[in-house]
Amino acid sequence: MVELAALLGASELEPYPVDWSAVERKLGSRLPRDYVEFCTLYPALIADKFIRIEHPSCSNENLNLLMDGMERTEELRKLVEEFPEQYAFGAFPSLDGLLCWGSSASSEQLYWLTAGSVDDWKVVVGDYEDDHMVFDGGFAEFLVEIFSGRLNTPVLGDYVTPLSEISYFK
User: Fold this and answer.
1) Contact 140, 124 (CB under 8 A)
2) Burial class (CB in 10 A: 0-12, 13-18, 19+), 22
3) Cβ pair 154, 130 in contact under 8 A
4) What does the DSSP 8-state code read for residue 127?
């Protein structure tokens, strides 16, 4: 988290307090510790007008994990049910399903692969047509790699790194 904070800098905004018990009850699952820590330091954000990171207490429903993230996860679930042969993963809350925590301006989704211990969940970047990349690491590690410019993936379309601009949303 230290390296991520160095890349993002100090947040000028105080994020809204999060009732993690209520969030986890609504989701039916705990969330990775690095995401919880991130949300105590930063509100929802958009990086370089391209990568959106959702927060469970954001008043903007398009950047709220419990609204937009769950809606995107539900959209994936419906597609997987209709076309199971086209998808490498199921959708949360299915065992080893994908749970959306963000997205990109070019329609890719940022997911957790909910396999194994919650703090070992890997990140999957993908679109609704199942073009995807599995990142062998968690939320904070993925953000460090993508924002530092060490991870460039064609799955994220037009994103050019390293990080140069952040917009925060409460």
Assistant:
1) no
2) exposed
3) no
4) -
